[in-house]
Design a protein that fits this description.
heterodimer, A: alpha+beta, three-stranded antiparallel sheet, elongated, B: mainly alpha
């Protein structure tokens, strides 16, 4: 598979959380918004302007693709456009997770987590 | 009746958001406008269901998100997402700024540093030449813009933007100079004559009313003249075969 190098660079928080939301299954716009808020423990609040701006760029970078239109039974009978990860999107997401994992490993190795310092002082 | 009220509020909220969506670039609005409105509707209804009402915080979030994303989408829609690259192509903005900055210096020089209190009627020929140079400048901008940018009406837009921006900056400069250095500029023969034959009680009111009139009538006229000259420049570009690389 031909990969776009720029999309595999470290991701912005908005892009990362959208990928995280869609890694759990295909979703429509409002579901993504809610999932992002939930996954980030309320730290990332994304309005529809930011959301669809990010989606537009992620579609252009081939990180996402449309997964058709259908109603959401939990809301109403209005048809909604669903999105899902592409292979490239999944790869970018996993690479970002790998980066986080490496950073956490380094921090643990150097005992940089506050919990280690607390234990040390006890 | 009690059930009508929340529905009315929801519709009003949707109408407001639909209006906000028009501020996005056209292509973005056409592709994502209906989806964004649908998402807003879902968000509105769920917030109302959970909190019982729509508070100020909800609207602050909507407005903050709207403002930043409208700006971001406009910036990214400017060719390739690079503002500087876009500005380089939009000759009008660069030349308008150049014209404005240059004229601000002249205004400050002739009105504050070395004020000349003689009547403008003494310099009619000079003013006529100045205007001619200015219009030729708009023609040149139109010519250059149509050479660098292959889009239709590139010359027209460049001429209009140059004129509008340049004239806007000039008016702003006069507003600042006339109000800050009123003691100096109020000695000008034309201002004294005009004020004496006006119904205004103070020189400041007279000057600012004149500037306002210029703003309302002068700016659109100048933009029209700039557009005409720019179009002429673009037409000249087509008539004159240009040899050379367009980088």
């Amino acid at each position: 598979m031909k990969t776009n190098k720029t999309t595999l660079n470290p991701l912005t928080p908005a892009v990362f959380y959208i990928l995280l939301a869609l890694a759990q299954g295909e979703k429509h716009g409002y579901e993504i918004m809610k999932q992002v808020k939930q996954d980030s423990l309320g730290q990332v609040k994304m309005g529809s302007g930011t959301l669809y701006g990010s989606i537009k760029r992620m579609l252009a970078d081939r990180l996402l693709e449309e997964a058709g239109e259908r109603p959401d039974p939990a809301l109403d009978d209005e048809r909604r456009r669903y999105y899902r990860l592409t292979d490239l999107g999944r790869q970018a997401f996993l690479m970002e997770l790998q980066r986080y994992h490496e950073v956490v490993s380094i921090a643990q190795r150097h005992r940089l987590f506050p919990s280690f310092e607390v234990k040390a002082t006890l | 009746m009690t059930q009508q009220k929340p529905r009315g509020k929801r519709l009003a909220a949707e109408q407001f958001y639909a209006f906000l969506l028009h501020l996005y670039p056209g292509a973005h609005y056409r592709e994502y406008g209906p989806l964004m409105l649908q998402t807003f509707r879902d968000h509105y209804q769920e917030t109302r269901a959970m909190q019982g009402r729509i508070g100020v915080a909800f609207w602050l979030e909507v407005l903050a998100d709207g403002t930043t994303s409208i700006l971001r989408e406009h910036l990214s829609s400017l060719q390739g997402g690079s503002v500087m690259q876009w500005m380089m192509k939009q000759q009008g903005i660069l030349f308008g700024l150049l014209l404005g900055v240059l004229t601000i210096g002249i205004i400050f020089w002739t009105n504050v540093l070395f004020p000349n209190n003689e009547s403008d009627s003494e310099y009619q020929t000079t003013y006529a030449i100045n205007y001619l140079v200015l219009f030729l400048f708009f023609v040149f901008v139109g010519f250059l813009a149509s050479r660098k940018n292959k889009r239709r009406f590139a010359g027209t837009w460049a001429g209009a933007i140059t004129a509008l921006l340049g004239a806007g900056l000039i008016l702003l400069a006069f507003f600042v100079v006339d109000n800050v250095w009123l003691g100096i500029v109020s000695h000008q023969a034309d201002k004294i004559y005009g004020f004496q034959h006006s119904t205004f009680h103070t020189m400041r009111d007279y000057i600012n009313a004149g500037l306002l009139a210029e703003l309302i009538t002068g700016l659109p006229i100048m933009a029209g003249v700039g557009a005409l000259c720019g179009t002429l420049g673009a037409a000249l570009r087509k008539l004159i075969p240009f040899r050379g690389s367009v980088a």
